[in-house]
Write a structure and sequence with these properties.
There is one protein chain. The protein is an all-alpha fold. It folds into three domains: 133 residues, Alpha Horseshoe (Leucine-rich Repeat Variant); 100 residues, Leucine-rich Repeat Variant (Alpha Horseshoe); 156 residues, Leucine-rich Repeat Variant (Alpha Horseshoe), CATH 1.25.10.10. Helix content is 63%, strand content 0%. α11 runs antiparallel to α12. The radius of gyration is 27 Å and the shape is flat.
Amino acid sequence: MNSNNTSERSADIVWHLENLESPNPRLRSQAAEDLGRLGTYEAVPALVERLQEDVNTYVRSAVAEALGRIGDTQAIFPLMDALRDSCSFVRRAAAIALGQMQAKEAQGALIRALDDQNFYVRRAAINAIGKLDLPDLAPMLTPFLKTPDPRIRRTTIIALRRLEARESVPQMAEVLESYVLDPTQRDLPVVKTLVVALGELKARDAVPSLIQVMKGYVGVRSLTAKALGKIGDPQAAPALVEALKDEKSKALQLAALRSLGQLQYQQALPEIRPFLDEPDPRLRRAAAITLGYLKDKASMPKLLKVARDDESPLVRPAAVEALGLIGDAQVIDKLLPFVDDSNAYLRAALAHALSSLDGDTPEVQAALTKLLDDDVRHVAIAAERALASCDRLHDASEASDACPEPDRQHVSWLRRFLGRA
């Protein structure tokens, strides 16, 4: 920050601090909001004073929110006191702020707030507890799964997911079963949240119910297919294969393809290979990568053809990546000519694929050296990483400055697509 910007910021802070003492509550409230937005640590003492003494409930609420945004630990205990404020707006804002700050010191006060007479305060307390990174608090939240109000249920599920509360999976699976028995669109937001949470918690106990959701709960089927892939239980594979046949839902087919790759379900290969000829390029791309994960050598000739001839600039690099994943070094000679391809995404994929197949042969080294001088930055970075064998390092501690990472502006589509950035 240059001196002009620093002086302007200082002047703004002085102005807002003066307004914090204004007789006009609107100015005080706005000043608190602006100080929070600026992250003004030096304003914390003045804000704490307003939180404790201001007669206007809207000002106290705005101050609590500002203190949460600033995140200074000296505000934790005043915010804990604010959980007993006479105004529910202030109590709710204090709970939200403590959650933002991940204030573990406030766990006792937030647990007490679970019994608050105000619905919105209770909900804010549940959400805040979920952000504390204290898994032992999960049993305090699990009973709220039985609350009839769908908003409380959804907030509780999110909190349990954040706490990685695997001991709550049986109760969450039970809730999902109740929705399977009586599916309605009204409950869709809760079901979506529940499916995501069970996927991230790798809830094998919930797989039978998730399969039923994928088969018939309109609006959440593709999300459920994705969750089943994350869980990794092979019993879901036949249902995912069946989902591939649902031509009415491309999103479901995409999720099923990816999940079958995660499950390493070789029996699905005959159903997956035809997707390389699908009109939808998203399906061709997903099929290519899935065949790569399944190391399907029988699909190599077709993947090479896709890499050469597919009309989509995003499918061709996926085919190259898939050939690298299959791992048969005999294909290297067929891949080397792609070093001059006009598709930058493909050239970046080529660098990774060649390194994966055999990065040490003179021919591969020559190709990677050429790609190192590529005009497109993410291609050059991919080549640099390949030459340093970065993607073959199993221990992250082995990585060094020789393994560059692109900034967000230059992260290639392929790296985002494969989840490596």
